[in-house]
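=== Given protein ===
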Amino acid sequence: MVKSNASTVAQYLAELPADQRAEIEAVRDVVLANLPDGYVEMMDWGLVVYAVPLEVSGPTYNKKPLLYVALSAQKRYFSLYLTTVMEEFEESFRARWAATGKKLDMGKACVRFKRASDLALDVVGDEVARLSVPEFLDWHAASRARAAARAR
């Protein structure tokens, strides 16, 4: 599955073959165990997302809740999107991951994996727990301001 039309996380999980569902659920458990209060689990972009509700963040440029973490099953691998591993947090994330001895397959903020056991789940948990909702909102605003300044 690359993109799901499921409207709930339960529907999304039910659509997955049992082996894929088990891998996604193992990572989901880590995310939920470490997710600070105030984020909500929902479906958006065809992914399981953990986001700041619009009632908390206020209007966004795309009228969608601010994505903090996301999880999805692709055809041949899984993706874990950690928005905070960009910019100032990336170096620390990569260093903590390297210290575990596990191979990191990462794009900009997307960690790709074939099995939950491929992940440094303690590092994932720490990253998920990194920012409370107010801290994430401040980080997001500062990131957008930096991007706007670079575009000038």
